[in-house]
Amino acid sequence: MRLGMDGLFLRGQEGYEEARADRVFNRRRPDRFPDAVLVAADAAGVAAGVKLARSRGWQVAVRAGGHSWAAWSLRDGGLLIDLQNLTTMAYEEESGIAVAGPAVRGGAELAPFLASRGRSFPGGHCPTVGIGGFLLQGGQGWNSRSVGWACESVAAVDVVTANGSLITADPHQNSDLYWAARGAGPGFPGIVTAFHLRTYAAYPFLWHDTWTFRLDDGETLLDWMHDLLPTLDRRVEPVIAATRVPYVPLDPGVEHPGGTVLLLHTTVMTSSADEAAALLSVFDDGPLAGRRLGHVRGETSLAEEGVAQEGQNPTGHRYAVDCAWTDAPAAALAPPLLRLWRELDTTHSFSIWYGWAPSRPLPDMAFSVEGNVYIATYAIYEDPADDEHYRDWVHSRTAALPGAGVYLGDTDFTRRQDRFLSDANVDRLARIRAKWDPDGLFASYLTADVAALNRPARAPGATAAADVAGDANRPGRTPGPADVAEGSTRPGRTPGAAAGVGRDVDVDVAEGSTRPARAQGAAAGVAEEPNRLG
Ligand SMILES: Cc1cc2nc3c(=O)[nH]c(=O)nc-3n(C[C@H](O)[C@H](O)[C@H](O)COP(=O)(O)OP(=O)(O)OC[C@H]3O[C@@H](n4cnc5c(N)ncnc54)[C@H](O)[C@@H]3O)c2cc1C
User: Fold this and answer.
1) What is the pLDDT of residue 309?
2) In the chain, fewer beta carbons within 10 Å around the N or the C end?
3) Index of the ligand 1 atom closest to the CA of residue 190
4) Spans of all domains in the chain
5) What residue ranges in 93-245 does DSSP mark as E strands?
């Protein structure tokens, strides 16, 4: 069968498997197989791909940078349009607007391109993340506490629509699509071929401040940071990372205690070194000042921070990831969070507490759920036999946190769903999808249970304790619907392949307890529901 398009790989043809899977960052690449993959040459190629899909009755999935943890770009059947060639970058001095293709990597490519022009943009912390998925879902980037979600700095988008037209959406034309492009993520009803980005003057100074503490000091650290957070300058970005990598700051003569330690890692962008030092001095006199294992403060650069991020997020590894916003006080958050942190058991697995503390209402855009603190956990391992174990663990332990919604970027709705849009915005997005994509050409959110999409995981008033209670320590779990969702090729977990912590989690119970309204016998398997969001 010839379809006459360069870069088109039909299932079964040579090159198909590489085109299907090689650009998915997560080595845990699901067994979902599109009918064909089109590596589009440019925006015109994208439009041709959309028309081809229409003519063949294919649904369309999209890949830009390939960094979706859950591999949203991989769907069963239909056409995957890969945007890897859409990497042009331009900068207009007069307006300060940069125009960048969706497969541009925010840290590795856009940041140096802008820095050489004295400009900056809040790209993703890990330098290889593509701006396509990152911006559409919100974008938590460098200096975001100060300049907001990265999508707030999107001035316009060029979009291939469901009928194959190439249009521009901004506040004055096609403004509903522009609204959706800032937060809808994979629910966006079109393919963005270029982002027009407001840029910022580059800060001359980026400083970091990194303290190493024992895991046993976690409760005190959380108490302290929850107290300090409301007072912190917006340019100060505090993260507590529970990490097991051995190369952490240690004072002379101090030995790593082994296992997991806590890093209080803060960055700040300022116009002078003195200002940076002054802003960071608030960390000097905390309750743990005498208990540090190590401390380093000084100038850094996005490139150096990027190297650290890549070290923490190695390629070639398998990832199971989940996240939660929380407005809970430290006293309620600490017990389940410390339990999770104590159970980290691979060299690279880590979990972060990110002090976000929203200080203003969000602008009118699809993105609409955030909270005081962001918790995200990344189980990182290499053996496919450990997939089920780590997926069960990360989602059940995250469900046990006193959460209030999620950020799309660190979710996997095939295993655990929660609210990521306000109710009003879900309805508005559904109307926009119905208008721009009435036939459901574009694949929407990847979820095991369409009916539960955007449903709060926690019933109002529910406590974390109730969730933990459901998390019975039973050996041997019964496969649940989510197991079906990921396909059947998993060999089953090798006994003793990883340390046993958390191995006994029954995720079905944990998930069930946090989804009160889920219907008995709700659809198993990965479901895609075009033009309805749940
Ligand atoms: C190592 C690593 C570090 C990360 N760090 C951060 C971080 O610091 N901050 C943060 O916010 N997130 C972070 N993320 C999450 C990341 O931003 C999201 O996974 C994001 O979706 C990745 O975008 P992508 O284009 O690379 O991914 P892809 O997998 O290519 O895209 C994800 C989905 O977005 C949609 N999409 C992408 N591009 C387009 C387009 N042009 N038109 C229409 N739909 C499109 C499609 O549905 C696509 O399947 C990180 C992820 C990884 C793997």
Assistant:
1) 86
2) N
3) 43
4) 8-82, 89-201, 317-422+454-482+502-517
5) 97-100, 119-120, 154-160, 166-169, 191-198, 200-201, 205-214, 236-243
